[in-house]
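Deliverable D4.2, example record:
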Amino acid sequence: MTGNFTEISENPFVVKMDEVRELSYDSFHDKIKEMLDGGSVHCVAYYGIEDSKGIRLICSVADDIRHNICTLSTLVPKEPGIVKSLTTACPPLHIYEREINENFGIVFDDHPWLKPVRYPHDRKNKLAVMDNYPFYGIESEELHEVGVGPVHAGVIEPGHFRFICNGEKVLHLEIQLGYQHRGVEKLLAESSNSLKRAVICENIAGDSAVAHSIAHAQLIESLGGIETMPDLWIERCIGLELERIAVHIGDTAALCGDVAYQLGQVVCEALRTEIINTTQFWCGNRFGKGLVRPGGTNYSLSKETADKIITVTDIVGKRFAEITDRIYSLPSVLARFEDIGQVTSEQALTIGAVGMAARTCGISRDIRNSHPFQYYRQYDVSPVVLDSGDVLARGMLRVREVEQSVRIIRDLTDRWFKEKKYGRKPVYDYKLKPGSFSLSMVEGWRGEICHSAVTDENGSIVHYKVKDPSFHNWMALALAVRNQEISDFPVCNKSFNLSYCGHDL
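Output generated by the structure prediction step:
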């Protein structure tokens, strides 16, 4: 990615909005197409902002090899609001263009699948409602449709899954979301209460409270010029790895439950409890809420807590390795995991998969490595990459990442003991840089989380954008169940464990 464009090698970063190169739409289209020609480059943010002149589109593209991020913009008039689609040349952008169309009514000519994404209350076309969602259909007397949800037989969030089946075989799955909205982005832009913003961000997706909190905190710190120190960076990374361990072990329990291996399920549930109880010992909340705040923390790591974290993670890591040796050597389990729900590397690249969904398809996409943040700038993480793309790979990735995270926590804790302790408290009275654009990325346990914001001439946030990895990866689940038995859907679904609320916002 070369040329007179805003290229930044830092994560997070902040630039003046007038330093973000503005192009005509045709030039913008051609440049994005050129930049995205390669598997090591992917779009991390692409959205619109309405102003008096029209709709400003901002796009940030990350190069995982050169470790930089290029941001550029274009202005599209509200009328006629028809522009050339990028999706036909760059398929991963399909979801971004669909969202822009839904929010602002811009029509992307030749887009193959310009359907609603979330049904926000302030969508441009109020006639687009749940009841008239344009599901894909196949006319045939031999096929039938199966609808699941949006209300499910369990305490999970709402989403509708429409299967087209030939007998028991799934030919096509379309996933319709958008059933719940909290107005997260609007609340973050409109609120002037900095503590409220932090609390909102840690509740974007409950199982990724630490990851979203870090994404928000470092965004604010970059915009506010707030200095943080290595001891805090280490603490945040330890919290992030604890979150990764807890969810991976919990998901392993869920996978065992779906294939009726009760021993694996109950052991993993107990081990997960040990981890989240340790997080609660640290900050008073099992999911790490309250741990991360801009500028500092109310729960600085102590020697007692650090020793407990090391002891618990070592024991849990060993016990998890023992039970997963059993789980992944049982023929009855392997028969339900191996070659089930496969996603190819080509499919993963086509949909722009991130995180686990990418790394189980042979794609080394991990922000800790490609665009390091916090203490990962000084600590190399080698992504765990598998290539079979099936349920087994998604299960084994969890096993190997738990092992890796236990090792990372021990290494980081050793370094924390040697660091000078500053123990800085949160900063809530910050002033943000005016007329600026900032972007922050974090590798949560699901994958790439991206927060970005735009400030006005007074330094007030006028637009805040959140992207959870589920935004990309729901399509991976839809592809995974093609040509599978419909009875394989639950285990495929659990193997991804995507977020409804992280998508709907």
